[in-house]
Specification:
The complex is a heterotrimer of chains A (460), B (272) and C (429). Chain A folds into two domains: 154 residues, no CATH class; 234 residues, Orthogonal Bundle (MetI-like fold), CATH 1.10.3720. In chain A, 77% of the residues lie in helices and 1% in strands. Chain A is built from 16 helices and two strands. In chain A, helix 1 packs parallel to helix 5. Chain C has 429 residues and is mainly alpha-helical. Classes of the chains: A mainly alpha (460), B alpha/beta (272), C mainly alpha (429). The interface between A and C is large, with 95 and 91 residues.
Chain lengths: 460, 272, 429
């Protein structure tokens, strides 16, 4: 939280810079603003930017680098026999030090060197903060002075300020790119480490998934197997069930809403469907586990079918309900984009409304509808909470929707939830699954977006 | 006497036909409302069989609206309401027993902008016969499609590319495709809503030629904003102004010797 | 073509009309069915949630006469709060129960007797003493939360005694009957649900901790994603040159909007926790992850609302000599702001309901304390729902539903705010 004070400090100094810059510019021309190239406010902004931008950059760099710098300093001050410990144990020791420094009691009697190190850690942190504060003050003041010195009546402050603002905006847009790169790199790096231990072919084509790796070599199932085929099958089955529910319902709702419903019905039903879209997935998950799964189990029992309490059917059905509004609102847009002239042409030959819809409107809207279905599939594949709460954990290669299957997302959650050591293939496998998931959804999204875009261009 | 704009103009000229036998469509005291607004006022007119009748008038005068009443395309607009009587072969088309689907099979329509379906040329023309079940088998369907394309004067141009998309044709060809589509169900009347407004002069000339050809088999009503076009293709002309039907007469009379001041001003280009 | 041909053709068309209209009707019915299916699913969902959750807003309380024994609380009469807080308040409760049911002798039965009252009762008594040491030595009538089994039984969620197949022993049932006959059992408004953090005991668990966690997380998300999203949208819509890079950026943003949320969780785990070493389970990390998730929504909505501002406004401003930046900042942005805010609220509502990525960064930990800042360990409402849904106790089920109702209420308020904002500032150009 202390960094917030530094930010406030920078803001304050910048405000002062703004004020001073304004003052100075108008004083330079003896209040005859017309003689200035830009408005006094622009000169103020100019000084404020000089004051704040370098300081904020330094603050950001400091925050990113500080913890690792302090850690390496603390480690180098540790007794040599501890420094020579293997990497994993060293990081445990470091963890203890940080905990002690934060006032958390690790054990009843921590070692002497730990206490000393914790003291060292806190001391470094304290000095670091003071140094940072001093540095920022200097940079701010320096920037302010620089900015003030540059002010001349003929200096093009507005253009400079606007260029800087534009550059800042560009930087903001870069965040979106950085996010994607971050996602790709973070899953890719861990996946590569995973594939160093487990061959890619075993991963992609293996028919068995049981990630439990025994701690001792003599335990049962000592080596985990990491074949994703059963996960893929499970994911596809649940997604298929979901789409079987969502596509007809969503599409027919959209058709009815755009071709038949009166304005009155539309104003009532549309917001209701939007509510369906706004319900958090965890609620759907609870609904699936609490209501739908037991219901299906009971119905199955009545017909003599053995239904698992975590059946793919239950998860798929509820996921389908979740995707209905998604399909219907996207298809609604797409259907509305079909020009009215085509409908008129069909009706004027004597087609009924349904003939017009089935033979003219839907074929014309097909690319867009396919696009929205693909986006729906992408959502089904990546959906997590419903399957975590209502689908199974064991990977089974089956085509029976009454059995429990598991999905990519369920496995990612179970592998990563709770405490984990970060190097075991078990946790790394989660990232490999994340990579597969990302690639699948990326393909679906890009195809869908491309199809929809082409479709829109056709009718615009 | 100063007339307020709400006054109903009594149509002058010859709105009603003397020869009852020739009447295909007759309209009596037709009013059309969009919500509260009255778009067509007390229009009474007869349309003669196997003849081209042109509706002219400045834009927004209600000629298109009136045209769409004749095959009940206005049904699709929710706020639109039609009063009065329109008969086709002495049968009230707004009667409750009249089926709009059947009516539209008898009164086809061609629109302002060429609007072929995003399907093949063949499928475009086959659409009507298919939904109405007019062809018992493939060869009959082929025959209907070919005759319709021939009648629309398009067959020779597209006979090798019947499976190509209709949207790939030129504007004029698209419009003739739409005409072929309209005549594929062999309607008795064809309504044309400014069919040439989106076309270049050469394509326009072709369509006009075609209209003259089609007159032998069909009763045609054409809405146009081009007076020359009306003069070229039509036998009778009706002049609309602000929702009123001002004057109806033989095309020659209207263009050579109009009775009403408004008609005269319009065709001499004082406004438009 | 002659009249007879026309007649024949019309008859042919007529003959098929009946079937065609039947098909039309069936198609229409299918449309209505689809909408009714969707709406009835919504109704069933709400009915089950409300039906299983409304009772959680009440909690069963047991009335006991507690003697605040000086010997137990502060035998040395020190008057020191430190001493009070160490005292055996559970003993006071047990004593009072024994007094009420003097016949209970067996050890097993005694244990059952003590479990009538929640283990949280002793904290309640301690707080009473800490707030008012004057009550030491006196006897007070105190309403204390009943144990969750009793609560469930009183609410009718679990079956009665062993013979009825239930899990409450018959003699325990008799005590409950005796207590309620004496007016010593009562259902009261469940304040704990709104004021406490999580707990292993259903009757002591509340959503306040999660709500505060959600608040901090949303705060971080809003503070980061709104400026970033708006700046990006302005840049892309008003300043960016049209070239391959902006095309890629656009595809990238649209794709990000459809990336599964759990992948953002992996990003948070790998980058913020493992690389930058930010604390696990902290709202700051949750907020960062949700920022990345919300950003595309805000950017897309903001761009749409910038696009809706007609070019004439920009041209007007440029025409009087404003720079492009001034035209955008002074004229376009104020007009586009309501649309941007609407998009932001919708994005925030989605972020408020998001669970999966937060599981990845450790916000599923069992946390009793109310978080005090964005670096504290915390959980959020949807994750709390997930945790409670996973708990075996029957009493947690109704609390899960209640928490869902509260979450949905928040979401409805946010969406209603977005709708009102849109209606109020909607402009047709």
């Amino acid at each position: 939280m202390q960094y917030a004070y530094l930010l406030i400090l920078i803001t304050l100094l910048s405000a002062i810079g703004y004020y001073l810059g304004r003052q100075r510019s108008s004083r330079l021309v003896k209040q005859e603003i017309r003689r200035l190239h830009s408005l006094p406010g622009h000169y103020g902004m100019y000084v404020a930017l000089w004051c704040s931008v370098p300081a904020v950059i330094i603050l950001g760099l400091w925050i990113t680098l500080q913890s690792s710098a302090i850690e390496s300093l603390v480690i180098s001050a540790l007794p040599p026999e501890i420094q020579s410990l293997p990497q994993e144990q060293l990081s445990l020791v470091l963890n203890d030090i940080i905990n002690i420094a934060g006032g958390i009691i690790v054990s009843d009697a921590p070692d002497e060197f730990l206490l000393a190190a914790a003291g060292h850690y806190n001391q470094l942190k304290g000095t670091g903060f003071l140094a940072l504060a001093a540095l920022l003050m200097t940079v701010c003041a320096g920037g302010l002075a620089m900015g003030m010195r540059y002010i001349r009546p003929d200096m093009r402050a507005r253009i400079k300020v606007e260029r800087t603002m534009q550059a800042l905006m560009l930087l903001c847009s870069a965040v979106a790119i950085v996010t994607t790169i971050g996602i790709v790199l973070s899953v890719l790096f861990e996946s590569i480490r995973f594939f160093n231990q487990i061959p890619v072919t075993d991963f992609l084509f293996g028919l068995k998934w049981s990630p439990q790796i025994a701690i001792r070599p003599d335990q049962v199932g000592a080596s985990g197997s990491f074949g994703i085929v059963p996960l893929l099958a499970g994911t596809l089955m649940i997604s298929l069930i979901a789409m079987l529910v969502a596509v007809p319902t969503g599409l027919m709702s959209a058709v009815y809403m755009s071709e038949y419903a009166s304005d009155k019905i539309r104003t009532v039903v549309k917001p209701l469907l939007e509510i369906l879209a706004g319900i958090p997935t965890v609620v759907y998950g609870f609904f699936a586990a609490l209501t739908v799964a037991p219901f299906i189990r009971e119905m199955g029992g009545r017909f003599g079918i053995d239904v698992s309490s975590e059946s793919a059917l239950a998860a798929g059905l509820v996921m389908g309900i979740m995707i209905i509004p998604f399909i219907s609102s996207l298809s609604d847009d797409v259907i509305n984009a079909v020009p009215q002239e085509l409908r008129d042409a069909s009706l004027s030959i004597g087609a009924t409304r349904s003939e017009t819809v089935v033979r003219v409107v839907l074929p014309a809207a097909l690319p867009g509808i396919v696009g929205s279905i693909l986006l729906g599939v992408s959502r089904a594949v990546g959906e997590t909470m419903i399957v975590v709460m209502a689908a199974g954990l064991t990977a089974k290669l089956t085509a029976n929707p009454f059995e429990a299957v598991t999905t990519f997302t369920v496995q990612i959650v179970t592998l990563l939830i709770g405490d984990q050591e970060f190097d075991s293939p078990k946790t790394l496998a989660a990232f490999a699954l994340g990579l597969v998931l990302f690639v699948i959804t990326l393909c679906l999204n890009v195809i869908a977006l491309y199809v929809v875009r082409r479709y829109r261009e056709e009718y615009e | 006497m100063v007339r307020s704009r709400d006054d109903i103009v009594r149509t002058i000229g010859k709105p009603l036909l003397a020869d009852d036998e020739r009447v295909k469509i007759s309209c009596r005291n037709v009013n059309v409302y969009y919500g509260e607004k009255r778009a067509i006022r007390e229009v009474s007119v007869d349309i003669a069989e196997q003849e081209v009748t042109a509706f002219i008038g400045p834009s927004g005068c209600g000629k298109s609206t009136f045209l769409r009443c004749i095959n009940r395309m206005n049904d699709t607009i929710k706020s639109c309401r039609v009063e009065g009587e329109i008969t086709l072969d002495r049968e009230d088309i707004y009667d409750r027993n009249v089926d709009p689907v059947l009516l539209r099979a008898r009164i086809g329509m061609v629109f302002q902008k060429p609007n072929p379906f995003p399907k093949s040329i063949f499928e475009n023309v086959a659409y009507g016969p298919r939904i109405h079940g007019l062809a018992r088998n493939k060869s009959e369907l082929d025959e209907i499609v070919i005759t319709s394309l021939e009648k629309a004067g398009l067959f020779s141009e597209v006979k090798d590319q019947l499976d190509h998309p209709g949207t790939g044709l030129s504007g004029g060809q698209q419009q003739r495709l739409c005409i072929a589509r309209a005549i594929s169900v062999q309607p008795e009347v064809i309504l044309m809503d400014e069919p040439c407004s989106a076309l270049d002069p050469i394509a326009t000339a072709k369509i006009e030629e075609l209209i003259d050809e089609l007159r032998r088999n069909f009763t045609i009503i054409i809405v146009t904003h081009s007076m020359q076009q009306a003069a070229r293709v039509s036998q009778r002309t009706a002049f609309f102004h602000l929702g009123n039907l001002v004057e109806v007469d033989d095309t020659n009379t209207i263009f050579v010797n109009p009775e009403h001041k408004l008609t005269q001003d319009y065709i001499t280009g004082r406004y438009g | 073509m002659n009249k007879q041909d026309h007649e024949a053709r019309l008859n042919l068309i007529k003959s098929r009309l009946k079937i065609r209209y039947a098909k039309e009707k069936a198609f229409r019915a299918a449309g209505v069915t689809a909408i009714l299916t969707a709406l009835s699913m919504l109704a069933i969902l709400f009915i089950t949630i409300v039906g299983s959750g409304y009772s959680a807003f009440q909690q069963t309380f047991v009335r006991l006469d507690i003697h605040f024994d000086q010997e137990v609380i502060d035998p040395e009469r020190s008057g020191d709060p430190e001493v009070f807080s160490q005292a055996d308040f559970a003993g006071l409760v047990k004593k009072s129960l024994r007094k009420k049911f003097p016949d209970v002798r067996k050890r097993r039965q005694k244990r059952d007797l003590y479990s009538l009252v929640s283990s949280g009762a002793s904290f309640q008594l301690r707080d009473m003493v800490m707030n008012n040491p004057g009550i030491i030595g006196s006897t007070k009538t105190v309403w204390m939360p009943a144990d969750d089994d009793i609560d469930m039984y009183v609410k009718g969620h679990i079956k009665a005694g062993e013979k009825g197949g239930g899990r409450i022993k018959d003699y325990k049932l008799a005590w409950i009957k005796e207590l309620s006959a004496g007016g010593a059992i009562e259902k009261r408004f469940n304040r704990t649900l709104f004021t406490s953090g999580d707990s292993r005991e259903p009757e002591l668990a509340g959503i306040w901790g999660a709500a505060v966690g959600s608040f901090y997380t949303m705060f971080v998300t809003l503070v980061l994603s709104f400026p970033l999203g708006v700046a990006t949208a302005i840049y892309l819509e008003e300043f960016a040159p049209k070239n391959i890079w902006t095309d890629i950026l656009e595809v990238n943003i649209n794709n990000l909007a459809a990336v599964p949320s759990i992948v953002f969780g992996l990003l948070g785990l790998a980058v913020f926790l493992n690389f930058f070493g930010l604390p696990r389970s902290a709202p700051i990390v949750g907020g960062l992850v949700l920022t990345f998730m919300t950003l595309p929504t805000i950017i897309i909505a903001s761009r749409a609302s910038l696009l809706a501002v007609p070019p004439s406004i920009r041209e007007g401003a440029l025409g009087v000599g404003a720079s492009k930046m001034q035209a955008v900042m002074h004229h376009v942005l104020p007009l586009a702001l309501p649309g941007m805010l609407t998009g932001t609220i919708i994005g925030m509502a989605r972020a408020l309901g998001e669970t999966a990525p937060l599981l990845m960064i450790g916000m599923v930990a069992f946390i009793v304390d109310i978080p005090a800042g964005i670096f504290d360990k915390a959980t959020v409402l949807p994750v709390q729902i997930y945790l409670w849904a996973d708990s075996p106790e029957r009493a947690f089920m109704e609390r899960t539903s209640a928490a869902i109702m509260i979450l949905l209420a928040f979401l409805l308020i946010m969406n209603a705010a977005a709708v009102i904002l849109r209606k109020r500032f909607e402009r047709r150009w």
